[in-house]
Amino acid sequence: QVQLVESGGGLVQTGASLRLSCAASGRTFNRYTMGWFRQAPGKEREFVAAIVWSDDSTYYADSVKGRFTISRDNAKNTVYLRMNSLKPEDTAVYYCAAGSLGGNVKLYRSRNDYVYWGQGTQVTVSS
Prior knowledge:
The protein is mainly beta. Helix content is 0%, strand content 45%. The strands form 2 sheets. Strands 2, 4, 5, 6, 9, 10 and 11 form a 7-stranded mixed beta sheet that branches.
């Protein structure tokens, strides 16, 4: 069982930066692929970024590529999402997710690839 707690959301202006953090419980954090998803009002939850457990390869949605960076600190059981050049369309609740223990590293883009979810943190970007 993995518990995830996100933090770092807030209200910022267009062009600003934020760093989201997701703290995970457990002693095998380094063997979970970690992902960030977001959900805007009235929209489906969508993939934002992932970092796979085997070699820390990272993957991004086209809408955030070049602006967002996912990283992890296994010693702190924490995954981060650095968000630069924020736009109003980035406004959403951001969720951290963990895949299955030692799972298939090719599975990271779908909500169904993840087993554990945090409660979400709100990010609002004003124009």
